[in-house]
Amino acid sequence: MKKLLCLLLTVALLAAAIPMFTVSSSAAGGTLTVTSGGKVLGTVDVGNEFIYSVSLDSAGYSPYMCEGRVTSNSAFAEIVSYGTVRSDGSVSMDSYCFPTRIRNASLASNYHGPNDEIRYNYSKTNDGIGVFTPSDHYFKVRFKAVKAGTTEIHHVFSLLYTVKEGYIPFDLITENKPNASLNPAPGFSDAIEPATAYMGDANGDYTLNVMDATFIQRKSAGANVTCVQKNADINNDGEITLKDALLIVRYQAGMDTGTKVGEWIFESEQ
Length: 270
Ligand SMILES: [Ca+2]
Ligand SMILES: [Ca+2]
Prior knowledge:
Number of strands: 16
Helix content: 10-25%
Distance between the termini: 33 Å
CATH topology of the largest domain: Immunoglobulin-like
Bound molecules: calcium ion
Radius of gyration: 22 Å
Shape: elongated
Strand content: 35-45%
Order of helices and strands: HEEEEEEEEEEEEEEEHHHE
Structural class: alpha+beta
Number of helices: 4
């Protein structure tokens, strides 16, 4: 409670000390254009997070073991997450890939290196040996746009073993393009989805800190500031009030708020 009071006092002092300021919706400056296989998937404000998703339909092949890797230029788009990293360091891809057939997935050793890379692999066993369907290979990676410019996402997806033929490695996808030499050719599609909100980021600069609580406090006191409504109305009561500012303070103090403050919101996951 003492910590909370200190934070509240900090908010009050900041409110008194900070002059009027204005913040655009992309305060970090500029946009990042994301491309794949030479085609533009879309643009994202610098600072915003986005999901890159892939679906593959390689009907005609009988997979037993597969592997893939996704890379991008980390100077422009940093990998935030994929799946769920458990406390023991292992990775569950349940929420980011088809759930029942994943056998294991691992982060490559250069995950944080200059060539940010995710490696993943899985096998199908007695719960679903057969040909691929679109839902069999559906993969998502969350990125954050960190610099204005253009970045290309690279995705290679290989079949290592098939049920019938054994070890016959070949790429179903290379550089985000289906392998045209295969018959039937695999179907492939990919897309990006920028986050539509970052709960608590009242001033819309894609960071969440005490400034946002101050911003809401100033707004609720009648100051002429423009809050990002979808970010600032944390308790979802239709108004931007001190209750919302307090939720940011509680969140920053590590307290449970029972809200989505601090979370990035993607429409497809609501
Ligand atoms: Ca902010
Ligand atoms: Ca509210």
